[in-house]
Amino acid sequence: MAATQDRLESFVYDREASGRLDVFLTACLPEFSRSRLQALIRVGRVRVNGKEAAKTGQDLAPGDRVELRIPPARPSGLAAEQIPLEVVFENADLMIVNKPAGMVVHPSPGHDRGTLVHAALGHAPDIAGIGGEERPGIVHRLDKETSGLIVVAKNDAALGWLQEQFRSRRVEKVYLALVDGRPPTPSGRVEAAIGRNTTHRKLMGVVALEKGREAVSEYRTLESFPEHSLLEVHPLTGRTHQIRVHMAFLGCPVAGDSVYGRKKPSLALERHFLHAHRLKLVLPGETSARQFEAALPAELQAVLNGLRKE
Fold first, then answer.
1. Is the pTM here over 0.85, yes or no?
2. Tell me, what DSSP letter sits at residue 254?
3. Which among 262, 265, 29, 60 has a CA at the least distance from the CA of 161?
4. Helix (H) or strand (E) holding 244
5. DSSP-assigned letters across all residues of 169-186
6. pLDDT of 26
7. pLDDT tens-digit profile of 120-143?
8. Burial 164-174 (b: 16+ CB within 10 A, else e)
9. What is the torsional sign of CA 219, 224, 230, 232?
10. Which domains does the chain have, with CATH numbers?
11. Which residues, given as ranges, of the chain have pLDDT below 70?
């Protein structure tokens, strides 16, 4: 049964040097994301030495007492839908799903039904309210037309555990991308900040670091064809559209990407050729990393087989 009363927590800052309030709470309560704890600070649910916290980055001194009231998880208000999911792995803490292309991860304007969240709620109803957000259980995202592995947490503790791994870059994500042309070198590393496109605000682009966020991708060529290359791409950061933007920046956009690549597809593709192929992470309560894989979808494999025959 869901809790109906606030959860009360109290901690004493025992560090030798001063530190930020939000960073301290994140360390004390790893099951919650830093953004959620910052939100609790902003709405007055955190007190320092009996006084309401002034700001999320308030300095703490040794011996300061921090108290907070955590509201019970609120229902997401989303209706579960019985949409088939390809579950690669599942336990009491999480499930790893092979998301099909065309499925949006969470509700957004124009996508109020048929998302991965709706399907996950149909598969595991108890995730409703996890994280106290409108995106229950969602740890990271994939673009609508990108297929492959995505993780859904099934409880708050698992959500915090997984978010911290992604935040500290300890999760290894590997994508398969077929690109137009070929990169400047068979393998390499792209370090180029990503931010909003100044002309088209819904799009992303490579920008100066002070105008965006650090973004790093590593790649290596698996196969070369006359006009295309199959790459294995390892994003070390998780920026919006990162691989698509970085590949376009290198001059070898993802095949079928009409937004950042060629307006007219070079191959018979109805979506971009990008697939979250491999995921390596430590599961909640474990100490060694596990690896999971999802094979290329049939429609992408058919395109690749066609290039091999040519």
1. no
2. B
3. 29
4. helix 242-250
5. T-SEEEEEEEEES--SSS
6. 82
7. 888 888 776 665 555 678 888 899
8. bbeeeeebebb
9. negative
10. 7-70 (3.10.290.10), 87-168 (3.30.2350.10), 172-279+288-309 (3.30.2350.10)
11. 1-4, 30-31, 33, 73-77, 109, 128-135
126 classed as catalytic? no
Q: Which residue has the tokens 């336990």?
A: 91
The pLDDT of residue 1 is: 41
Catalytic residue among 22, 93, 112, 143, which? 143
- How far is 97 from 85, CA to CA, in rounded Å? 7
Q: What's the token pair of residue 45?
A: 């649910």
- Which tokens sit at 177? 């991308």
Is 148:89 a contact under the CB 8 Å cutoff? Answer: no
Read off the pLDDT of residues 45-88 as tens digits, 9 standing for 90 and up. Answer: 999 999 999 899 999 999 999 999 988 765 556 778 899 999 99
Residues 103, 144: Cα–Cα separation, whole Å:
5
Residue 154, token pair as written in the block: 């099934």
Does residue 269 contact residue 254 with C-beta atoms inside 8 Å? no
